[in-house]
Specification:
The chain has 199 residues and is an alpha/beta fold. The chain is built from 6 helices and 8 strands, in the order E-E-E-E-E-H-E-H-E-H-H-E-H-H. The protein is globular. The C terminus is likely disordered.
C-alpha cells in the first residue's frame, strides 16, 4: 500500500538505469519525493542540493521495485511517498494510485471520480506535474478518445510502459479481431505503429 508522508528538509538522490533511460530518484530520507526520467519535463534542477542516497533505504527499495516492475512483472509498489504539490494535485495523484496495473482511465474519468466532471483540464495539469513517475502511474491516463495525449517523459515512454503492462497489447489484439479481456476493455490506444520496445 502506498502512503503519503509530510515533506522533510534534507533530500537524497540515487540513479536507476531503467530500460527506458536513466532515472533520478529523490527522497527526504523517509519517503520517496521524486522519480524522474532524464530530460523529463519538470525535472528538478541539477544544481539542487541533494546528498548521495546510497544508504537511504527507500531509494534502495525503489531501485529494487522498479527492477521488479521492468523485469519480473511487479504490478504494485509498496513505498512511502511524499510528493510535494497543492491539495488538488495531491488528490489527483492519490486517484492515480487507484488505477490498476494494465488498465487506463481518461482525464474525464479522474475528474468524475474526484467529484467534478468539468475539471478534466485541471486533472490533466496535475497529472503532468506528478513528481513520482511510474510509481504514481500518470502514464495510465489517456485521452477520452483513446489517444495517448502527452506525457512529461515523452509519449514513446508512455507507450512503452502501457505495453509493458499489457494495456497497449490488449488494444492491438482487438485490432486483429481477438477479444479483449474485461480488465482492459476500456483501453483503445492510438500511437505511431513504428514504435517498439524490448524489456
Amino acid at each position: 500500500m502506498t502512503r503519503f508522508k509530510a515533506p522533510a528538509k534534507n533530500l537524497y538522490e540515487a540513479i536507476y538505469d531503467s530500460p527506458l533511460g536513466e532515472m533520478l530518484l529523490v527522497s527526504n530520507g523517509d519517503a520517496l519525493t521524486g522519480v524522474y526520467f532524464s530530460r523529463q519535463k519538470y525535472c528538478p534542477d541539477d544544481d539542487a542540493q541533494r546528498r548521495d542516497g546510497a544508504d537511504v533505504a527507500v531509494l534502495n527499495d525503489t531501485k529494487r521495485q522498479l527492477g521488479e516492475y521492468f523485469h519480473e512483472g511487479r504490478r504494485a509498489f509498496t513505498l512511502a511517498l511524499a510528493p510535494e504539490g497543492t491539495p488538488f494535485q495531491q488528490q489527483v495523484w492519490a486517484q492515480l494510485c487507484s488505477i490498476p496495473f494494465g488498465e487506463t482511465r481518461s482525464y474525464g474519468d479522474l475528474a468524475h471520480a474526484l467529484g467534478d466532471a468539468n475539471k478534466s483540464r485541471a486533472v490533466g495539469a496535475a497529472n503532468g506535474r506528478n513528481p513520482i513517475t511510474i510509481i504514481v502511474p500518470c502514464h495510465r491516463v489517456i485521452g477520452a478518445d483513446g489517444t495517448l495525449t502527452g506525457y512529461a517523459s515523452g509519449v514513446e515512454r508512455k507507450l512503452a510502459l502501457l505495453s509493458l503492462e499489457g494495456a497497449a497489447l490488449a488494444a492491438v489484439d482487438a485490432a486483429t479481431g481477438t477479444k479483449r479481456s474485461a480488465a482492459t476493455a476500456r483501453t483503445r490506444l492510438s500511437a505511431p505503429a513504428n514504435l517498439a520496445f524490448d524489456f
